[in-house]
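This part of the workshop introduces the protein records we will be handling. A record pairs a protein's sequence with a compact description of its fold. Comparing a sequence with its tokens is the quickest way to learn the format. The record below serves as our worked example for the rest of this section:
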Amino acid sequence: MAFAITQTCCADASCVSVCPVNCIHPTPDEPDFGTTDMLYVDPATCIDCGACADACPVDAIFPAGDLTGPLKVYEEINAEYYAGRDILAEATVAPNFHRWSPPEFGRVLPSDFAALDVAVVGTGPAGMYAVEDLLLHTGSRVTLIDRLATAGGLIRYGVAPDHPSTKKIGETFARFHDHPRLRLRLGVEAGPELAARHDAVIYAVGATEARRLGVPGEDLPGSLPAAAVVGWYNGHPDAAPVDLSAERVVVVGTGNVALDIARILTADPGSLAGTSLAPAALARLRSSKVREVVVLARRGPEDAAYTRPELLELAARGNLVVDAHDPRIGAAIDGGDEKAALLRGLPREVVEWSAPPPDGRRVVLRFHSSPVAFTGDTEIRGVRATGPAGEVEIPAGRVVRAAGFRGAPVPGLPFDPGTGTVPNTAGRVEPGTYVAGWIKRGPSGGIGANKACARETVGSLLEDAIAGRLRIRRRARIFGRAPAVRQRS
């Protein structure tokens, strides 16, 4: 019985490295890596050893025959990735074995390489992959810093609370918090003194600002950036409560975050009890008046930004409807594949926006429709959006702008306002100063994409150290048990 990878795949390739028959693809050295929604097990090659399931940091891999309910479709999704591939042509010994790539040793440290003192700012995936690389592959001493009193970054405050398996990767990262060469400093603002006290500093501070839409009314009360909603239901200390007194909410954007928000706002609150959902958010969801969330998509169903696993999860709940206001939508669903094909069988209707939302709770996908303006005098009352027959007014008491994120300037570092990133070359801002994650490359890729990103950055740091481009600060430092965590006052 072959194994199969399912919805919570983080694509960090931990499974690839332990597979004895190289049956999980795309691998980090293949062109598709980083562009597919997830990784896939080849059922014709898998020998059912279970090594991948043991190595998976997010519990996403199971025997295909054991999959039931909404996960059953992943047996077919894994096999579908390999349809049409000539496995025999790739075999070296037998049809069950793929050809292995030659070994590569891309990073070699001198035998006398001295231990470095490195500061890493940010405890999210990019920062923690950098920490892991430094601690496991060098003798470096690491000071890990976060301005928040709780570590985790995107894992803690960005992943939806009903995705506990995805959040589990935080446990993998947390094991480094007690490493004898790591000093964890939480509730501390990173300042310019870091460069004076360390041989190198890696900034992995993410992209926390919302990308602006540039439409009238965008700043009206009731118009919220996605980060504000996600932070609220995840208990971020900076997040304000979200008013759920409106019957209809419009979410602009079709990324995974947009679908997360739609799913949480329309979920049965009882199903969220026992998750990591903030208690105050759960209480507010129990009294929520939201009955309909409209996901507004500029492009068609074949080009939506969400991943197939995210759409499958939402569709499995049975309260997803497609607004058939444009004939192109039905044609794309009926004649398309991959994302568009997943919408077959879902209810389609031409929504009458002048009517109140129907009883119950539902999510409406409205494709080929962009916001023209947010309407209202002193607060949001609706969204004027495009359609094939002209503009339409969608009454709504709340709007969530989920059209992407961008980085914020980091004090003391250069900043490109056009891309929302810190200019860098392979993570190097200048010798001694480095970036990793979204502040380095922009808000693209999931959790696993940060692994290769962080490795590249650490590689640039080590190159500079070997070439003598770092100002090494030699001083006596005693690590061992980390000092007491210092909180911000």
Summary: The domain at 117-208+407-466 is CATH 3.40.50.720 (Rossmann fold).
